[in-house]
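Handout, section B. The chain below has 239 residues.
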Amino acid sequence: MSQRLLVVDDEESIVMLLQFNLEQAGYEVVTAMDGATAFSLAQEQKFDLVILDLMIPEMDGLDVCKQMRIHKIMTPILMLTAKDDEFDKVLGLELGADDYMTKPFSPREVVARVRAILRRVGQVQQAIETVNVDNESIQIAEVQIFPNNYEVMYKGKELELTPKEFELLLYLANHKGRVLTRDQLLNAVWNYEFVGDTRIVDVHISHLREKIEPNTKKPIYIKTIRGLGYKMEEPQLDV
């Protein structure tokens, strides 16, 4: 069965170009030209990936992305932006986008990026299924991770995590006790070189600490290994 993609852009020429090239690559493509329509489609139908322009009417791309994640629609999102603005790129990834591309781009590049994201998502799901054949959850002190449900509990309460925060936490947990460099985390979780910029890893680590660390200035779960990267540990909690 063909994988289904949702392409969202308010420029008809770009929509037609992407639709043609993606269908030629074997994907089924649904299109929308504003954010409200895109969000409705994402709620009503199942897609394997959404290609989402940042500057669209009704709801902009960031709002669509944010609302999808709030409503627990975890479909991978490839953000398109005409802006060469690092703030927009990082914010989009923080809100739950999986990747971004800056216009102008070649259709071949988009197809390659779509394949890479879908391949990574498949690998993550396969890893989840492999690691958790006998275990429904991963427990590290007061943090409990349910990989198959994309859920994390902390002190018995469910945490609100973006897909990338979840995948980063799961990767750290599955490699508990090992020092992981920023490049390792970047390639494992985002599966591509983020233009050599690993700051997005630091941003996501900071967000995770805000959600699971009793004291973010003295983390007990996710330790910084100066000059190397990060390591997740089993903290010794006072009883």
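Note. The CA atoms of residues 183 and 196 lie 9 Å apart. Compare this with the example in section A.
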